[in-house]
Design brief:
Shape: globular
Strand order of the largest sheet: 1-2
Radius of gyration: 23 Å
Oligomer: single chain
Largest sheet: 2 strands, antiparallel
Number of strands: 2
Strand content: under 5%
Order of helices and strands: HHHHHHHHHHHHEEH
Distance between the termini: 37 Å
């Protein structure tokens, strides 16, 4: 019993320590956004601002750049890309899970193999493609390359595979088409995995920086993550203003994650288990 208790205590200590390591960067970002310039540059560091109601950094940050426009661009890109991606994911997952066609398993295996290729290796090819389509420096360039996802298709297909075939054959006998069966039966049942996919895709789209920095050149088409670079100068960066803007950027995703973490875990777990 003592060994078991010691093991439990050690486990909780490790978990608490890991949680603090994960939370500390967010605390430091939020705390610094309320600090004055003197508090930020002081040594030893000031761990908490003297006034947690000091919103001057937020006011100056929104004066320094049109973050309202950046926020709108991020919302438009995220909503459109997530909507299209979810639709294509549902259709592809249904095809690989229920439809019988020659080479289905081989094709799905080939698609899964592309998951081993990091996105950074595809940047040049994708850039050449969107450049030929004349999409550079438009919001469309942030949407078109991300209208499909092999990873999300894999998760949803795994969930579709757990649905009994008897439902499919019963619906077909009753005269339901594949299209009607997909949207009337499978999609409602797969709600946990769909919520997971939508949430993960929303977070990824909202926080996208690398592709945005390469394809967006005008100030008016920037999204929020790229808009944070306005605080970077040759002489350095104004950290308290940058972190104030970063707090506004990250806060929506933190709120979404806090209220939906249960769906993310359940959806990934169910999508990865067959049977």
């Amino acid at each position: 019993m003592k060994k078991i208790k010691i093991g439990h205590v050690f486990t909780y200590v490790v978990l608490i320590f890991g949680a603090l390591l994960m939370i500390f960067p967010f605390y430091w970002m939020i705390a610094t956004s309320f600090k004055t310039a003197a508090e930020y540059s002081s040594y030893p560091p000031v761990w908490a601002p003297s006034n947690w109601l000091n919103f001057s950094n937020f006011i100056e940050a929104f004066k320094a750049a049109p973050f309202g426009r950046y926020f709108l661009n991020s919302v438009v890109v995220t909503v459109i890309s997530v909507t299209i991606n979810s639709f294509t994911t549902i259709c592809a997952s249904f095809a690989f899970s229920r439809l019988k066609f020659k080479g289905r398993d081989f094709l799905f295996g080939c698609l899964l193999s592309f998951m081993m290729v990091p996105f950074e290796m595809l940047v040049i090819t994708n850039y050449q493609t969107v450049s030929k389509l004349r999409l550079i420096n438009t919001l469309a360039v942030l949407i078109v390359p991300f209208t499909t996802s092999i990873f999300y298709t894999y998760i949803l297909k795994g969930f579709f595979d757990t649905i009994s075939d008897s439902l499919y054959y019963s619906a077909r006998i009753d005269g339901a088409s594949n299209w009607k069966y997909l949207w009337r039966v499978m999609v409602p049942i797969a709600k946990p995995s769909l919520v997971t996919i939508i949430l993960l895709n929303t977070i990824a789209s909202w926080n996208s920086y690398l592709w945005t920095s390469l394809t967006i050149t005008s100030n008016i088409n920037r999204t929020i993550p790229l808009g944070l670079t306005v605080f970077m100068t040759d002489a350095g960066s104004n950290q308290q203003l940058q972190l104030a803007a970063a707090t506004v950027t990250v806060l929506p995703m933190i709120i979404i994650f806090i209220f939906s973490r249960k769906y993310i875990v359940n959806g990934v777990a169910r999508g990865g288990i067959k049977g």
